[in-house]
Design a protein that fits this description.
single chain; 327 residues; mainly beta; Neuraminidase; 2 helices; 27 strands; 42% strand; globular
Length: 327
């Protein structure tokens, strides 16, 4: 297991850097809830530049983010009551991409990622209000939207708090974390973003609430667990290995008891007891050889990183033209 002493930290003064995107150039892009919301750009030397919505732009609370060719950034909006998908241009302009579906406003939206072609996967964790009602074992109203030039449609429903998703390196499957269903699931992929029946890849035990998801070059799925600050690797055969952990056993036990009693609520996510990590929620492989693992988090103001023992699988944005995003 990795030592906490190996952790390094980048950036400063970030507000809820939940998701990290790494680019071949060395640029790291993270959500930033400062002021009206946007992103922060962290260079390899650790300097930070903010790209935030202006006063005349919609207020955005980006959770998951995705990079488009040319430097625009898609933002999954985690509003208090409504969500949606927005685009942040390199000049700071914000435009709505998708705010309604099937005649109703999109609920608070969690994550956005490229489908590897001309479309995107957008996840919504729950339709319940307040959203913390979705932190229950019994909650199963999360869903996945496929967004493409042909339109947007729900392609999977009935999930236990849908969180990060990713296309398997083979291109044959869409994997997704069900955080409070406490499992990693997958769907067979067909052309046009169609999904087959859900399959369970693996289920997680005490203290594991799967949030972030990334693949390595060997087909392993790397999972970040909120609350317990754990990074796990799920091998292609479904076996699990803990790679990194920063958790207080008593705190994890208290949250576990609340979860089992169907009493889990917002304070269980915001009052984390740990040494260095502040409720990690995401993992992105980067660095010159894709052997640096960057950790997004819910509560910290920096991005942690550690050396990965295996190279990551590059996401579709790894080589895209950054356009006006770089100066």
């Amino acid at each position: 297991m990795q030592s906490l002493d190996q952790l390094q930290f980048l950036g400063a003064g970030l507000s809820r850097p939940e998701c990290a995107l790494a680019h071949r150039s060395g640029l790291l892009i993270v959500p930033d809830w400062t002021d009206r919301g946007g992103v922060s750009l962290i260079t390899p030397d650790g300097s930070t530049r903010r790209l935030l919505a202006g006063e005349e732009q919609p207020e955005i609370r980006p959770n998951g983010i995705a990079l488009e060719a040319g430097g625009s950034i898609l933002l999954a909006h985690l509003g208090d009551e409504e969500g949606g998908l927005f685009r942040l241009r390199p000049d700071g302009r914000v435009e709505a991409v998708l705010t309604e579906l099937d005649g109703a406003a999109l609920p608070p939206s969690n994550f956005i990622v490229s489908d590897g072609a001309d479309g995107w996967w957008l996840t919504v964790s729950t339709r319940l209000q307040p959203r913390s009602l979705g932190y229950r074992k019994s909650a199963d109203d999360g869903f996945i939207v496929h967004v493409s030039p042909l339109g947007a449609r729900i392609v999977a429903d009935g999930l236990g708090y849908t969180n990060e998703c990713a296309t398997h390196p083979s291109g044959d499957w869409l994997y997704v974390n069900e955080t409070f269903g406490r499992r990693l699931s997958r769907f067979p992929l067909s052309p046009g973003g169609r999904l087959g029946a859900r399959e369970t890849v693996t289920e997680f035990g005490e203290g594991v609430f799967p949030d972030g998801l990334a693949f390595d070059a060997e087909g392993g799925a790397w999972i970040t667990s909120i609350v317990s600050n754990r990074v796990l690797r799920v091998a292609p055969d479904g076996s699990q290995t803990v790679v990194l952990e920063d958790a207080d056993p008593q705190h994890v036990a208290n949250v576990e008891a609340a979860y089992q009693a169907d009493e889990m609520d917002r304070p269980h996510l915001t009052k984390i007891t740990s040494k260095r990590l502040r409720n990690i929620s995401n993992l992105a492989f980067g660095g010159p050889d894709l052997r640096t693992a960057y950790l997004g988090c819910l509560l910290g103001d920096q991005v942690a990183s550690f050396p990965a023992p295996v190279a990551g699988h590059p996401l579709p944005h790894w080589d895209v033209d950054l356009g006006g995003l770089v100066r």
